[in-house]
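Record pair follows.
FIRST:
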Amino acid sequence: MAFSVEGLLGRTHQPSTSRPVPYSMRLASGAKTPVCHYSGTRVKLPPFHESRMKKNSSLQSTVEYAATRLLVSGLGAMPRPLAVAVGRGIGRIAYALAGGLRRTGMRNLQLAFPEMSERQRAHLLRGTFRSLGRQLGEFSQFPYATAETLREFVAYGDRDVEHFHQAKARGKGIIFLTSHLGAWELLSFAHSAFYEPISFMMRPIDNPRIEDLVERYRTRFGNTPIDKKAAARSALRLLRDGGTLGILVDLNTQTREGVFVPFFGYPACTTTGAAVLALRTDAIVLPVCAPWDEARKRFVFRGGPILELVRTGNQERDIEINTANFTAAIERHVRAFPDQWLWIHKRWKTRPQGEPDFYRARVAETNLRPSKRDVSNRAF
């Protein structure tokens, strides 16, 4: 889910900066109670009520779970058209209230589409919130969905199905290369109902009770989640055995986990996981997404064409080139359906050394230049 109840309900206390704080607190090495350092004097403080802290944490977890279950179950009790309409309404409300997310989204759109007016960017951003709300409504219906009911609003183009069958015919593992565009939750869910279950990489939600709830919805037709924190061995085995693995590759990552490749002309730190798995298993890489088609009133599966792997003999170079090619495929999807991608995510948060922070620093327009770094052998 794009929005987390943790993010909506969580609160982090920020100390006042109106006057200096003359002391600091920390746990001394091996100590069970905090100590206070004031002008070099070490003074023992009263012990924390750890049991109360645990109760507060448990209470917060319970409240988050109850709110999530109430929301999803309430929408799930509605007929699908009404649930989707309410979900879209929630998206509109979120757009109005979430000022920080709006600022992030407008900043991203400024970077991606400098030729657009502010009004055009705002229109796309409102579409993002509507798309997220629509997916919330659809997600709430998962417990009651069947292959027959899904076919009423999920379609596969003949050419897209042909790309999928071409991938299957090669007799190797398949990587569904996808992004937070359209109904990414519905993409794997419907595929498992229409064709066969797949596995997908995911980061568990911090609240385990919410994670259990979401997992029950996602896996109703046999899909298998793989924790991305410990995914390597399971993913390698799955692909070598000819299985299908879905990987979301469009989010910002840390430098230790990714490489910088162009995304809308700017270096974006991108996970190398998909490229590493593909190169090690010779898996077939198929870019996929499921955008909403307003004219057809359906989510339409878009798959392919197959991305052929580039091998130069230099492992690091191969990982970088293929990651760049994968990211270019995602960018093509986003450009095709710009009002359905997750613009509220800080995609360019991690910067190359020496480059300004796009989200904190006030960077002048004249200082923003698309990346000119060459990635040879790329297939953009």
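SECOND:
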Amino acid sequence: MGLVANQLQRLVYRAGFYLDVRGLIQLLKFRQLRDAYFKKLWMQAAQNIGAEYKDRGFGFAGISRNGLTTFVRQSNVMLDDQLTLDIMGNKALVYQLLEGNGYSVPKHRQFSLDNLSACEAFFTSQNGPVVVKPTSGTGGGRGVTTGVNSLKALRKAFRYAARYGSELLVEEQLEGHSYRLLYLDGKFIDAVRRDPPVIIGDGRSTIRKLVLLENEKRLSGDPVIALSPLKIDRDCQNRLWQLGLRPGSRLKAGQVIALKRAVNENCSLKNFSVRDMVHPETVQAGENLVRDFGVKFAGLDVICKDISKPLEGSNGTFGEVNTTPGIHHHYLVNDASAGVPVAELVLDYMFKEKQGVMHLRKGETVSISDHWQRQQNQKIKTTEA
């Protein structure tokens, strides 16, 4: 396929994302929830470590202590450089790096929009279901379809993933629970088990209605149980089809189903703190991995049958290396008292070790947005003169 045709095909698939107006409006509502949640989280964390929080405009906040300032934006911090983020954000490249350092990875194949045959060939070579996902440029499970077990489902998963990028990945689906192991400067600080999102039938409402009610509950923020909407996407539809259901199906009262295998859209009730359960060899392997890759702040995704045993044989393996790990996963857990104050640990480390901080002028108090406005006013005066 020629370059122009390839680009046109990509635009067609990408249009599916932008034409989902209702979905975009929903994302905007949840963005407001996320902004409010992280503002409160960072303000409290700053207070707890004796630092000062200041809204700097444009979505940024500055946190200062003892003459040093660092910036945060939602869950993002100033620890790893942009090139590191880009490298670790490329799933195919990360698999290469993991294999090169002796770690096992799922069987996989990278393919592009004009090479669906490579994806189909890989699928037919497998004895079980596969996962289709964008190679890079996404997070939060966007574009991912799990449990793909037919060529028809594979092509649908391909089209869905293509909304988010032209380079795609197909891999064997591993069995086990999904875990997030969090590391700061090569040291293990927390682990959570993240189970798939579920809904509970009431005997009257359709699955679509139950999802709507769940999202209304999440948006209420009282209390905050999730920062993302639960979506009836390709992964969800594929899962429902396997269960003999559709979005319009009605569940019996009390009937519980997992809507999808991907865990990113679950809520706090399905997140469990397991820090003390992780096998020491797995902890050490993760520490070696992040140090070898030179990553300061990382969330390692692990698929594992038994986290209390080493990652060997068929028990489990490391998957993605998240260099902008969502710290909210470690607060929004089933037992809130078991949560780890990750934001405080990160800030305290940055100030003590002088990592990811700025030396700003003494007494500097003008926000970025105020500075920008002052520049605009000066331009107006100069033009008028």
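COMMENT: The first helix runs from residue 3 to 18.
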